[in-house]
Amino acid sequence: MLAGTGSDVGKSVIAAALCRIFRQDGYSPAPFKAQNMALNSYATPDGLEIGRAQAVQAEAAGIPCHTDMNPLLLKPNSDHTSQVVLNGKPIGNRDAYDFWRRGEKGGVQGAGLDFRKEVCMAFDRLASRYNPIVMEGAGSISEMNLKDTDLVNLPMACHAGADVVLVGDIDRGGVFASVYGSIMLQTPEDRQLIKGIVINKFRGDMRLFDEGRRMLEDICGIPVLGVVPYFKDIYIEEEDSVSLEKKRRELAEGKVNIAVVLLRHISNFTDFDTLERDPRVNLFYTSNVADISQSDIIILPGTKSTLDDLSELRRNGCAQAIQRAHCEGKMVVGICGGYQMLGQTVSDPEGIEGNIATLPGLGLLPIHTTMTPEKTTRQVTFQFDGQTCQGYEIHQGVSTTGEAILQTDHCIGTYIHGILDNAPVIEYLLRKTGKGPREAMASANSYADFKEQQYDKLADHVRQHVDINRLYQILSDND
């Protein structure tokens, strides 16, 4: 298990690296995270839903993703409620306070479900098919007030008999206190599970931390297995919304400017990773009306709360800016919840999302959407510009069209996530702007090939800076 001193310390990426390393070394690894909280999710081959990080880690391991890799997924609707997805299917919304209170409605034993039993069963099924299992914890392992209801950190490691490697982020500062404190706050029994430390996101001359490494080992009594440098030239899809804070936020000269409207409940922002890497493009996130007006292409992304975000777009002027830009011939693209917003109306008669019953859409596409309890999750193949493309759907709500993609002269709406990973779609959009370099991006490799190269680069990077032989020895000692 890769556990963390906090959120966004790099557990998911290190887990992906180990999945690839174990695969390269002839093993059959699989990722596992008992409980995940994220709006970036993915559809499994059998049409169920898991967190995006575990889908990425499964790719690194070279296996199809499965709900047993992430049996419990929480998708925040607001600051206080989340949709609960169990074994790939939504089972309703839960108040956060109730969810974390053992034995009460929505808690660990809530609604007639024993979540702890469910996640342990999922792990056991996975462990019967793969070896080793690369487990990931969530947030900090030292949230003492939540220890009794913790399903994902050391209690899960105890069930699995897992060796725990603690990951600390040196880039944010305070790594000595966070590592030492995370260990010392554990019970003596749990402390024995922690077999190694990895310091992540180091910047500068590695030799400057040699003494720090020895000091950490002395005060913690646990070996430092590696110090992993910060990297910028390896592209691994990210799940945590914290990474959005690092995205570009402004226009650029000499490129096709693509504005992704920054929604409060934005989801599946990995839809734009391929466009971000295109040298012809400046893709940035904004809710600034002036920036939207000056952009060449405007994208309304997916959202966990379509009606709430649609209401906010009208309040902050972005809706009107998008409508004006469309009238001026700018290209507007809506994906999933963004697609729903581009229609004539969005209705929620059963209160699936909240208290807003209905709102007018932006009126750019001839569809009406009604929220329904059933959720669509599936992988899809579709045709665009005469070429076969791939993506996946994860959405609540039904729109009055059976088309995978609804297209007018300057507007495209679709429920398909990953649509912008397909070269024919990107080339079409850039042609429609009539601006900037028109030649197709030179690339002999598909996006799938690119990702495979990145997993190998990540594995090489981690092998170089983590003592993998010592890690194998720890695993052997446990056996």
Rg for CA atoms: 23 Å
Question: What are the segments in which pLDDT stays under 50 over at least 5 consecutive residues?
Answer: 102-110
The general outline is globular
Strand order of the largest sheet: 15-13-16-18-24-23
Kindly name the structural category: alpha/beta
Q: Multimeric state of these chains?
A: single chain
Question: How much of the sequence is in beta strands?
Answer: 25-35%
Largest sheet: 6 strands, mixed
Give a structural overview.
By secondary structure, this protein is of the alpha/beta class. It has 16 helices and 25 strands. The protein has a six-stranded mixed sheet, sandwiched between helices. Strand 7 (81-86) and strand 8 form a beta hairpin. Helix 1 packs parallel to helix 2, helix 1 (11-24) packs across helix 15 (447-465) and helix 6 (175-184) runs parallel beside helix 8 (210-220). The radius of gyration is 23 Å and the shape is globular. Mean pLDDT is 91; it is low at 102-110.
Compose a concise summary of this entry.
The protein is α/β, with parallel strands linked by helices. It has 16 helices and 25 strands. Helices cover 32% and strands 27% of the residues.
SSE inventory with pairings:
Elements: E1 2-4, H1 11-24, E2 30-32, E3 35-37, E4 41-43, E5 49-51, H2 52-61, E6 72-76, E7 81-86, E8 89-95, H3 96-99, H4 115-127, E9 133-135, H5 154-160, E10 164-169, H6 175-184, H7 188-191, E11 194-202, H8 210-220, E12 224-229, E13 256-261, E14 266-267, H9 273-277, E15 281-286, H10 289-294, E16 297-300, E17 302-303, H11 306-316, H12 318-327, E18 331-335, H13 337-341, E19 345-347, E20 358-360, E21 368-384, E22 387-399, E23 405-408, E24 411-414, E25 416-417, H14 423-433, H15 447-465, H16 468-478
Helix pairs in contact: 1-2, 1-15, 6-8
